Amino acid sequence: MRNITNPNFIYIITFIVPFLVYSLEWSTIYPALTVQLFTFYFATFLVALAIGIVVSKLFKFKYKPIPVFPYNVPVIILLYIFYALDCAYMGFVPLFAFSSGEASYEAASFGIPTFHVLLITFTLFYALFLFHQFISTQKWSIFLLYISTILLFLFLLQRSNIMYIIIGSVFIYIISLNRISFKKVLALLAFTLSAIYFFGYLGNLRSANGDSTFIPRNSGVTEEFLESWVPNEFYWGYLYIGSPVANLQNNINMETNVNPNLGEFIIFEMTPDFLSKKVVNALSLTRREFYRINPFLNVGTIYARAFSYLSWFGMVMMFGYLIVLMNLYYIIIRKSYMFGATGLAMMFTMISFANFDNSIWFSAFSFPLFYPFLFSIVRGLKIKYKAELQQKTSLSPINTNLAT
Known about the structure:
The chain is an all-alpha fold. It is built from 17 helices and no strands.
């Protein structure tokens, strides 16, 4: 099977997965999916396929191994120092405090304001940059540094960021392959199942004090599942992958009289939250909610709130916006030697996370895309400066001779 490095094909593949998971029917609270929703998704797949074919022919990406970045260790040391300051500011380390019941914890409000967001987004970028170095050089010292970035999010009990790194790493691995053999597909499947199990284990630890039946029983789990051979930890994967589509369908069913608001749609759905925050605060705006199948299942794909603002037209606009952004980013970042694969993996991960929520609006997943772009420019300017300096140095003896 050929390698897949096209964002349009990634959209199709990742947005099909929730429907496959949905078909397991492990929960009784998921609504039946309608023909209208299937039609919308099928239409987006056709458009993405057509654009993907054109992009593949006109803008090819060629994977290139990269050397080890000489400052990896100092960067990791600085990250640990900065996270220590972050925890000191809050007065506790989430993993230790929460597991012992000493402190309540909300990831969204943790850490030093603004600084914490920059720290999180840079760590996500650097983790994948380290993994690209490891894939390129096969040096296990780099892999240990990569693992150290995951440990940071384990201390913070931020499962979504751990999954971001894992998913992004899988994409880097896939990007690095010329062809994907059946054996490698099986290995990736085994790795994915292991990651889902680990995700479920952390979920039970954080949300249910280790009780593996608490979340399933509070989200309409079927008795057939509880009595089956499948470990309860896998229910978390089913819940988080399938529930966003369930919420989207539920919102479509319940939101019968949509009050259109294009202005707020642009602010809340098309603009990253770190940019829109000042406008929102100045105008005292509140982001619209959507109808959920369960109070604690609070994500509805990139399309749920778009429907709440502009009905089906909002979903169409959201798809168009996503398809334009991801193709423009692909066309630009694919040229970067040092950060191209990292940037593509991050974009593919953002597309994957659009199955859960609006990953364009959510800065933690959209802002990291800025780092490969920025550092590619910095590296390009540095190379240009060195070339000009070398040229001046090589010409200086000739100028001296001419002067004399």
